Amino acid sequence: MDPLAPLLDLADVAPAFASARESVDAAHRHRALRRHGGQVAAEASLRAAVASAALEGSAYDLEEVRGGTVTDPVVQGALRVAESLGGLVDLWPRAPRQVLAKLHVLAARGVVHDHDLGRLASGAERIDALAGLVAGNETTPPMLLAAIVHAELLTLRPFAGPAGVVARAAARLTLIGRGFDPRGLVAVERGHLTREPEYVGSAGAYATGTQDGVRSWLRHYAAAITAGAEEITVIGDGVLAEA
């Protein structure tokens, strides 16, 4: 039995998830992806990394980051994390704790002391429970599992420094690895950033452990997925305009 299945029975959650899924499916049919899929994926990855860093308090103009002039270690860490995801997809469901440690090493280098890289600062028992939920889980719908992975890691902040970058990357790995977004095109982080007050508020609500709090987070997550899907269209249209 899927232990997370009852969450889909919370008011308005299942319809919100279904609508988000439709938005992603539609975006995945954008004609730019036929010949320029790699270019779209690279741009989505860049935008996701810049947004993730901004959510961690390191906000910079996208073009400045693209131009290589931003040396902020949180931004550089987010970029390293984004570049690493393709190589971690297969390992994530087999060794989630190992992957989380690796993500932290990439995200936090230059931000925290080298001794703390990849080392849990808190929440070991709950991280074990989360790892057990991720490992080999082919039952929980991908979007639901990604949402819970993300929220749990935000709540625990188990690593020193930019733990939010790790949380968002782990959720992205879940979406990619479970086939929801196999090419890594959905910049969910952009969705979180464009709705940042809601993102922060719903994450805090989730941390209370109440049904209403969890419902608030799941509805936000569906909205962020939808916004990430819309970003595919924006990127794709831009690519075609330059082709």
UniProtKB/TrEMBL annotation:
Domain (Fido): residue spans on this chain: 95-220
Source domain of life: Bacteria
Protein name: Oxidoreductase
Species of provenance: Actinoplanes sandaracinus
Upper classification of the organism: Bacteria, Bacillati, Actinomycetota, Actinomycetes, Micromonosporales
